[in-house]
Structure formats: structure tokens, C-alpha cells
Design goal:
The protein is of the alpha+beta class. Strands 1, 2, 4, 5, 8, 9, 10, 11, 13 and 14 form a 10-stranded mixed sheet that branches. Helix 3 packs across helix 5 and helix 14 runs antiparallel to helix 15. Bound molecules: zinc ion.
Amino acid sequence: MENQQPRNQNLSRDEAAERARILSVDSYEVDLDLTGAPDPAVTGYRSRTRIALTAHVAGEETFLDFIHGGVASVVHNGKPLDTAAAVRGSRIHFTPEAGHNILEVDATALYSTSGEGMHRFVDPVDGQTYLYPQYEPADARRVFANFEQPDLKAPFTFTVTAPAHWHVASNQSVAEHSEHENDTATSVFAPTLPISTYITTILAGPYHYVTDSWQRRLEDGSTLTVPLGLSCRASLAENFDADALFSTTRQGLDFFHDLFDYPYPWGKYDQAFVPEYNLGAMENPGLVTFTENYVFTSRATESQYEGRANTIMHEMAHMWFGDLVTMRWWDDLWLKESFADFIGTLAVAEATDFDTAWVTFANRRKAWAYVQDQLPTTHPIVADIPDLEAARQNFDGITYAKGASVLKQLDAYVGREAFVSAARTYFRRHEYGNTTLADFLAVLGEASGRDMGAWSEAWLRTAGVGSLKVEFSEHDGDVTSAVIVQEGVDPTTGSPAIRPHTLGLGTFELRGGVLERTGGFRLDVIGARTEVPELVGRPRPAVVLPNDGDLTYAKVRFDEATLEVLLEHLGSLTEPLARATAWAALWSMVRDAVLPAPVFLTAVRRHVATITDVGVLSTILGQAETAVQRYCPPNVRDAEHRELARALHDFLLAAEPGSDAQLAFARALAELARAGELDHVVAGLLDGSVAVEGLIVDEQLRWALLQAGAARGHITTSTLEAERQANPSAVATVGQALAWAARPEAQVKQAAFDAALSGTDAEGAVLSNDVLSATVNGFLIGSHELLDGYYERYWPVLADIWETMSIGLATRIVQGLFPLDQDLGTEAPEQHRVVRGADAWLTEHDQAPRALRRIIIEQRDQLVRTLRGQAAVNTSRA
Ligand SMILES: [Zn+2]
């Protein structure tokens, strides 16, 4: 039996298609014995799977997927197989007989600390053990033997044996429960409807569990009752605002029933908040799992509550888009993620009290898409995903945010009625099945009466983000011609990518120093140049805002006059969506090296305090910090840092006591303080000698300040340890790890770097996913003097890390340690030492796994982009 970290094992699209040709699965019975979990010396658990399948062809060898800690037996149609021959790596080979087959696997699966497979977490507050799994795209095979591909759907029956006092849950309700003499109990869950492996789930531990229910009269006169449940760790129970969560849940269920006209099919609806989660949430039907960061133990802003509601709605949309109808393979991941992202935001906007959902979408979600879509690794929304490693990396800004942005454009293009009607047909036609792009286009074509072929080619099959700009000609103070100029190139092919847009244009005038809307209209932009007759024959407006209403997906480029007015008067623009769109465009210009960072920073200092949406405010403050650290060359950075620090301090003191804005300024200040200028404020807030009216230094803020103090060398290891021991919690564990690694001492950096590369601490204990990332993030805070020596050690170990660690942990290390904070010297950006290091590695490792190369290519591109931004500052000052 081996207890090492199971290695990454790939599975190709071709292999999956081949397997689906050979067989279909009739049912799974999975039996897990988790009774040993509380003992840290127990590394694995018994996992038994019984699979009934039908072979469509006989005599062709195929395989089960299983990343395991030892297989005791494999029985095929009653006959034991020779495991030495059948079990090869993470595959179990067998040759089906014609027709009905039964496979039985009895094995050991391993607990995980990486968030992949069955994650085990020990609560630092009370020592209790918690388990939950995470599978997508392909880690169910870390828990039980199966055919790990989305189109081999089957009903699953789970049986779980665990300590008797634990809350044990799965996709379905418990059908039978029996207690045993040794304080353990066995729960047998009802069979699920046909679902894919990646959305099966188990929850086991002394979770705090709260219940409620939701009802709905259906069209046939019957009543649909959905039992609701919420769970979190017991030690978080006092912070668990179950009423608010149930309320959002009910709003969502009402909304989706009205919208989709297809009754919720999965029986109950549980939502579990779990520790050290690698993602925001996962849409397991009947038991959605969320990061417990959504159980707010420190004060949360309105924006954080809105973000949580958005995730709740996103996952609920998946109950239909993704769970009921599932993509055939990961190429069409967008068929669920883009829809969930768009419709989840729609649900927040239309079914809850949060009124800034589309503002957040425009300013934050789209920013993610624009960043990703300008990387050399971008791809069309409908992606080419040849294998699981590629699938794992496709949960990106294209699949989610760009896809959702394009669906928002589609909604404007075909109209809501056609969009909704297409969705309804799609669910009825493909329920419990698998689909591809063609299936969606078919229902959309039927509903809209339009041929969607050209639209989908332009939007779904090409990559890259185009730009839109209005060009004016004037005579005697009047506009004689106004043209929307569209530019765009698909970076993956080099071909022009000009798209059809349903676009809003907004016009604003300065009145008494205040920007006021004077008009707005929609138009269809078809080609590279589109006339705008509405703007002709009158004076040019002070501000013309392309993509007013944020209907389409494109970079906005302001005309020069508009830019000048915005930089001067943006603070007086009070319309939230227009304001957020304008700020997003300015940041995009910094990233494209067409707006020098100091100009952006001046605008931030002048106008940011007038922003009323805390989500947008926090985003811009984060961008400002990035602008200082990465887009300012070293010769101006200190001055810009000082100015921003002073401004943040002023804003903090001037903010309304107890407001979200005050908290946002305090958090941004703690972040910026890691690089200096604010030591006295940090120390004062920590020891109470500086008090800001209405500001409570709670757990989260306290750790942020401690990290800043540690990064400046003012907080000792023993102080950090005492802080954690005074209030042990998951937040404190991670907070301490980051603060420790941030300390500006050579031996600390050495130890942190070693810990990051090995994934273990000095005593050899395995670092969990969150502690590993905290260590990496802490390590990277520091001067070039402290850190530069490590670049040479980074490149040679990448391939080995990828080979030996799980893909989740390897990604955290490889991506996290890439040295993005660099100074442009006299060389060209492409000649910078770190860029050349990346180039050399890429040349030497042209056969490295595509997923690993993708990380390096993307980080290199991000670095070059910041260096170009620094060069633009130098040019503007020359
Ligand atoms: Zn999703």
C-alpha cells in the first residue's frame, strides 16, 4: 500500500469517446467507510464500488479510473481479476462481455489536504475532523472507482459509514440509517437520478445543520416541496446567518421556476459551507458546497454579501444548466458555466434586494474576461479541450466571464423572450442527457427564428477582445460625422475578428462642473465602421460613453476629448453603471500601456472617494495598488506609493464611521502598508493607540495589519504565535502562515521557499492547500535583495513539482511563485532578466505538459505587460 500523494493522471477526449462507444453505465453503488477519519494516523478509507454496465460491443478492453491507495480486489461478472495485471497506475483495465456486466472494486482511497478528492480538515478551534470532497473536473476517481467523464451518466447509490454523532449527507436524502455498537453509523442514501460523476458528493463531519423548506404550486395543481438545509463547521455556528441564506435561496427557487418553467428535479436542496475550499462553490445537485469564506466571521461589506448571493444563484442555475443537461465533454464547459454566470447575475439583479449586480458584473467580472482574453493562451468560448489537464485549466475568465458577457449580448441581440424560450426547450429536450454547441444553437434558432450560425462563429468560435471607439469630424462646432470604429484580431489565428454588437451609446454634458446624462440610445454595430447619425449636426457631447449599459463585450476606447473630461470630472458622474464602465475602461488603458499609471493614480486620488458601490471601490483600490507596484517604474514608484498611502489614510479618516467604504479603505491601507509609509498607522490600529471612529479591528482586519507589520519587520514570530493562540481559527492559521513568510529576513525567505517547494513545513508535516498558498504569498512580499536569488532556483524545479504533486497544489506553487513584481531597467521589456528566464524555460521545455506551459506563458505575458506599462510611464515623462 502506498500512501504518497497520488500522481496526476490524464484522460484524453478520444479515450472518453471510445469508452462511451463501448459501454453505458446502468448504475453505481458506492460504499465508503469513513470511521477512521478522526485519527490523523489513518491515511485512507475503504472504498467499494459496484457498477452495473451494458457493453455495446464485446471483447474490447477498456478501463475504470481510480487514483487510489491500493486495490484489494476487482471482480468482473463474479470472477476475480488478477489485480497485478488489471490495475495499472490510476486505471483498472477489464474487457466487458456482451450485454450486462457487473464490476466490483474493493480498495483504499486516500484522504487529501489539497482540496481535491476527499479533503480532510481538522478544526483548529475544537480539534474536530471534517470531510468533504471536490471532484470537478475529474477527482471523483480519487474517492471511488468510476468512468470519469461527464457523458456516462448513471444513478448513484451512496452508503457511508462514519462516527455516529456526525452529520452525513449526499446528493440524495438518507433512505436507511443504522447505528452500530462502536459509536459508528451507516447511512444509505436514496439512488440519485442519472448524473455525471463530477457532481456526486458526500459530506461527513460534526457539521452544524439547519433546515427549512420551500414550496411551489405546479401547473398540474400539485405542490412541489423542496426540503432546504444549510451546514457549516460547528465552531462557525454563531456566525452562521442561516435566515439570510434561506431567504436568498427561496428567492432563487422562485425566480428559476418562473424563468425555466421546469420543476426543480433533485428532491432536497442542501448548501454546505466547507473549509479550505479550492473554489467558490460546486453545483452538486441536492448538496451544493461553498467556500466557508461566505460564513462571515469578521465584518463583511454589502459587496461581499452580494458576491455570496451571486454564488448561491450561480450554483442554483446549474441545477438546470449543467446538472440536468450536461456538456458531453469539457470543450463545451461554457454551456453550463457561461449560462450559470449570466443567469446567476440576472437572478441577483431581479430576484434579490441587491441593486448593483450588473455594476459588479461590468466592473469586476468582465475585467477578469478582458484580462484572460488578452493572454497568448486565450481561446474561443467553445474551446478545444483534448484532455483532463486542459479541462482543469479551462475554468477561466473566458469560460465564465466572457461567456456570460457574450450571453448578455445575446440576450440584447435576440431579446429576452427568445432567450428564455430557447432555454425552456433545451431542458425539456435534453433532460438527463448531454449536449454540444449544436444542440443549443438549434433551440436558439427555433426560438428566435434567426440563423444563429454567423453570430456563433463570430462570438463563440473566435478568441480575443475587440475595441470600440467613436471617431468624430467637426465643422463650426458641430459634428459632421461620427463613426464607431471596431478593431479586433483573433490572437489565436491572427485573423480579424469583427463582431456584430447591439450597443448602447451614452452622452453626458458638464453642467456646473457636474457630469449629467443628456441622452442614450442603442444601435447595431455590424462591421469595422458604423455611422452614428444620432450624433451628427449638433455640438459634440462632453462625454460619449461607448457600451453604455454594458450590453456588449469589447474594450472601450474613449475619444481624446472624452478622456480629458473624464479624468477631470469622473467623480461627478453618479450613475453607477456608467461610472463603473468608465473606471473599467481607464484601468484597461493602464494595462494596455496607453494611459500612464501615474495619470490613473491621480484620477483615483481625486475621484475614488465619491464611489458609492463598495465593490467597485474595492476593485479600484486594488487596481491602484497594482498600478503602484507593477505599472510604475522604480524611479516614480516611491513617490506614487507615498501619495497613495497618504490619500488612503485621509480617506480612512474622512469616511463615514462604520461604513463599508471605511472598511474598504482600511483593508486597502493594510495591503499597501506592507511596502511601507504607514507603519505608525498599522502599529497604532493594532495596539489601539490609533482609533478611527466606527472602525472595528476585527479578526480579518487584525491579521491584515499583522501581516503588514510582519512584512515591515516590526512583528516577531512569537507575537504571531501568541495572536493565533489567543484566537485560534482557520482564518488565524492562514493569517499566521502568510505573516510568518512575509518577514524580511533571509532565513525566513529560505524556509518559506523550501516549504513552498516541498509542500511541507520544517517538521515535514504536509501543508494544506490554503496554508501553502499563504506561505507562497508571504514569501513574495519583500525586497529584490531578499528575493532575487530565488529566481534561479525556481525554473529548474517546475517540471518536477508538476510531476509529483496534485495539479491543484502544483498550480498554486508554480503560478504563485512566479516573480511578477519587477523593475524595468534600461532594457526592453522582452529583455528583462525574468522574461528571458521564462523564455529559456519554455524553449527547453517544449514537451512539458500543456497545462504547465500555459501557466508560464501567462505569467510571462502578465510580466511583460507590466513592464510595458512602466516603459509607457518613462516615455510620457521623457
Ligand atoms: Zn459554475
